[in-house]
Write a structure and sequence with these properties.
The protein has 462 residues and is an alpha+beta fold. The chain has four domains: 20-134, Beta Polymerase, domain 2; 155-281, Poly(a)-polymerase, middle domain (Orthogonal Bundle); 291-364 and 410-459, Poly(A) polymerase predicted RNA binding domain (Alpha-Beta Plaits); 369-406, no CATH class. It contains 16 helices and 16 strands. The strands form four sheets. A five-stranded mixed beta sheet has the order 1-2-5-4-3, with helices on both faces. Strands 7-6-8-9 form a four-stranded mixed beta sheet, covered by helices on one side.
Length: 462
Amino acid sequence: MVNKASLETLFGRILKDIVPTKSEIDDLNEYSNELMGRLKAVMPKDVEIILAGSVARGTQIRGKSDIDIFLLFPKYLEERKMEEDAIKLAKKAVLKSRGESYEINYAEHPYLKLKNEKRGIYADIVPAFKIRDSSERGSSVDRTQLHNIFVLENLNDRQKDEVRILKYLLQRHNIYGAESSRHAFSGYLCELLMAHYKSMLALLEGISSSKLPLFIDVKANIELSGASVPKEEQRRFNSPLIVIDPTDQNRNVAASVSSESISRLMLLARNLLSNPSESAFYGFKYSDDKKASQLSKFVKASGLQLDALCFKLSNISEDTLWPQLEKLKNRIEHEADTNGLNITISFSRIESGMGTIAILHNMQKLGIRRIMGPDVTIRVAADEFIRKHGGQMKISVDGTRLVALEKPKYIDVNDMLSKIISDKKFLFTKDIKKSQCKLYSKNIPVQYALVVYHGIAERLNI
């Protein structure tokens, strides 16, 4: 039986630590208003400037309150021209004399990320088209203005605080974030789940007992799971979690959430309901202190060998680099599988401009392989087998079948990774270069050891 009082007490204690302080809110409001004023001064009069995101909706967490400002242009403008003008004008609002700098990142529209390191404030300045409903434009960036309206109209102050608790819970368990690399729950998805379930307790109870796929239509107040989800909806969205955007019935807000992330939330919900404690809420705790030695200690205890490809990445958006790093990891896994090498755990990760593909594997070494060929009476196939394997060790016959003894292409995983780096035929990706890559098996540099350590801690704990 769920101890509702214990859960509410736990959530109350946590909320005190994550609600932004009055001074933090005042500072953000002052800065965002001043920045919006600067933008208004350089933008055409028909451009509407709005505050969006968690700060505007009142669901931000203490210390993580980045500002989202949207520049809403008239929709009759040509898209590329609008983007170019917006970025060009937005740059004029950045004041280096006040310690501000910027970089240009890319999503569905390019946007300017302003940084004020002195005050610890970051702001995304995003161009979009002003729309009344989703039928006017297809971009999720353009729909953000509609998301603001829906959330503000459908969440009360208590529910906004519970969104903060949900976000923080997901952060603690590494399943929060809109970045494509995370396959996790975005802030807007958290807000929609709260709008549907109405409370944190109901959300945990609902998720804990669901089957996959889970289908939620917030606007229509419909929830279906497992076999009850219509086949046409399963085919249309092809996702373990389907949460229909109330501002666009053709969009699944949870499209990027992986089966692993929703499964982790299910287990987390069950654990919290049965054990409403801080240890269940906060989960596994690890220290960044002595990360290299901690990593070495884990590898030694596991009995596995660790090989890590480490990259100093280009100054390009993580949303662009991540799919390339993941694609490269998948190609390496395929190469290992094709050549008889077994990988126990592998993951890719990006942090602070550094990327890693880490592979943990048994310390197997491959020897000569015995390859069975066709029956000698099947002349064409037999001739082809002899042609293909004639360069190996001597071919013999076992009964009526040809047999070849073949040397392995790679002795072990480390040998494979070393050869991949030097093999001109094994291509990396457009923005992840071999010249940026180094292979480490021991004495991983501290900055990369931290990235690998975080990845292992996340993969092996729920």
